[in-house]
Design goal:
With 202 residues, the protein is an alpha+beta fold. The chain has helices at residues 21-27, 81-95, 102-111, 130-138, 159-165, 180-192, and strands spanning 3-8, 11-16, 51-56, 59-64, 75-77, 144-147, 154-157. It starts with a strand and ends in a 10-residue tail after the last helix. Bound molecules: iron/sulfur cluster and FE2/S2 (inorganic) cluster.
C-alpha cells in the first residue's frame, strides 16, 4: 500500500492509502473529538464534531475528519478558531437533547460550550447511530433501528428481535454517549415482557 505524507497541526504525518484524516491523526497521537465514530463501524459522518480545516492548493475548507481520505501534501488543522467555534455550537445543540451526558459535559468544558444556549428538547438521544449501526454491522441482528425522520427521528428496539437477542448481548449500551439507550431498552423490555416485571405474590 502506498505511503502518503501529509501535515497535521504542523507535524509531518505518514499515512497509507485508504486512511481517513481521523485515522492519520490518531496514528500520530493527535486527538480529534468524535461522537458517532467507532473503529469497528463504517464511517457515518453524522455528528460533525470531527470537523477539521484542510488546505489544498492554497484553498481552505472544513471537512469531516472521519470521512475525508488522506491525500499527499494535504495540510490539516484540527484546532483553528473556526473549527473550535463550530464544535462549540454542535456541542450546544446536542446538549439541548442530553444536557447531562458526561461525554457532552466534558466536551462542553473543553470548548467553552453553554449547555443552556438552546431550548431543551430532552430526547436523551443524539442520533449518533452507534447503537443502531453496531447491532446491524457487528452483531448482524438489527434489533434496534431508527424510526420516523426529521425532528421526529428516534431509535427503537424491535421487540420481537430484542426479546431473542438483547438480554444476553447489551454490547451497544456502553457505546451510547447518553443514558437514553439503557432507558429505551428497559422500556421496551418492560413492554415486551410485562409478566417478568411483576413482583411475585407473597
Ligand atoms: S441511543 Fe445512544 S447510541 Fe443510540 S443513537 Fe441515541 S445517542 Fe446514539
Ligand atoms: S465523528 Fe465524524 S461526523 Fe461524527
Amino acid at each position: 500500500m502506498s505511503e502518503i505524507l501529509l501535515q497535521i497541526d504542523g507535524k509531518e504525518v505518514k499515512a497509507t492509502e485508504g486512511m481517513t484524516i481521523l485515522d492519520a491523526a490518531k496514528s500520530a497521537g493527535i486527538h480529534i473529538p468524535t461522537l458517532c465514530h467507532h473503529e469497528k463501524l463504517e464511517p457515518y459522518g453524522g455528528c460533525r464534531l470531527c470537523t477539521v480545516e484542510i488546505e489544498t492548493r492554497g484553498r481552505s475548507r472544513l471537512v469531516a475528519g472521519c470521512l475525508f481520505p488522506v491525500q499527499a501534501d494535504l495540510i490539516v488543522r484540527t484546532r483553528t478558531e473556526e473549527v473550535d467555534k463550530l464544535r462549540k455550537t454542535i456541542i450546544e445543540l446536542l446538549m439541548a437533547h442530553a444536557p447531562d451526558s458526561f461525554e457532552l459535559l466534558a466536551l462542553a468544558e473543553e470548548y467553552g460550550a453553554d449547555r443552556n444556549r438552546f431550548e431543551k428538547e430532552s430526547s436523551f438521544c443524539l442520533l449518533c447511530g452507534l447503537c443502531v449501526r453496531y447491532c446491524n454491522e457487528v452483531k448482524k441482528k438489527s434489533a434496534i433501528t431508527f424510526v420516523d425522520c426529521g425532528a421526529e427521528r428516534q431509535i427503537n428496539f424491535i421487540p420481537e428481535i430484542a426479546a431473542q437477542e438483547c438480554w444476553n448481548c447489551k454490547e451497544c449500551f456502553p457505546l451510547c454517549p447518553t443514558s437514553y439507550l439503557q432507558a429505551a431498552y428497559f422500556l421496551t423490555e418492560a413492554l415486551a415482557f410485562p409478566r417478568a416485571k411483576e413482583v411475585p405474590a407473597k
